[in-house]
Amino acid sequence: xxxxxxxxxxxxxxxxxxxxxxxxxxxxxxxxxxxxxxxxxxxxxxxxxxxxxxxxxxxxxxxxxxxxxxxxxxxxxxxxxxxxxxxxxxxxxxxxxxxxxxxxxxxxxxxxxxxxxxxxxxxxxxxxxxxxxxxxxxxxxxxxxxxxxxxxxxxxxxxxxxxxxxxxxxxxxxxxxxxxxxxxxxxxxxxxxxxxxxxxxxx
Length: 203
Hints:
Layout: E1 13-14, E2 17-18, E3 22-23, E4 29-30, E5 40-46, H1 57-62, E6 86-88, E7 94-96, E8 103-104, E9 111-112, E10 115-116, E11 122-128, H2 137-153, E12 158-161, H3 162-165, H4 179-186
Helix pairs in contact: 2-4
């Protein structure tokens, strides 16, 4: 357990590991600051190579096993050491790479609502996809179930996208993401989401 405020073990959680996620442990993590309160969920999207689904390249990236020579795009990210707490495949399969009690490396330089270094306080969730195309219904089902479990066990009050915590640098999860669907399913106030994202639904 990290020194920050985290829940005790429950039927759903063991030391920050979610019981309904397949564990694929990443070496890319560290302790959260002692004063950190895990109150933010950051949503991302990723596919490697971009727009290609179904392979194991994302898992290899998050575990430092990606062959940089396997595709020309990989050379542009060669040497990156990154991770996310969770990854949701197109079919809704859920994988976890880092305990939620620990600090994953997903946000990078970031700031949200007056606080910088979002990795310190955030849980990162990656969806397999690209930022200008819709996500699969099965991904939303898994995402909503996961976020509900997180909300039950962690003091999360905010949900934002990578595009909102690193504007101008990141654009994910992008225009294809249905924010109103998630807000309605979780029953959270509009104040828990970035301004403007709940104007319409793609549902």
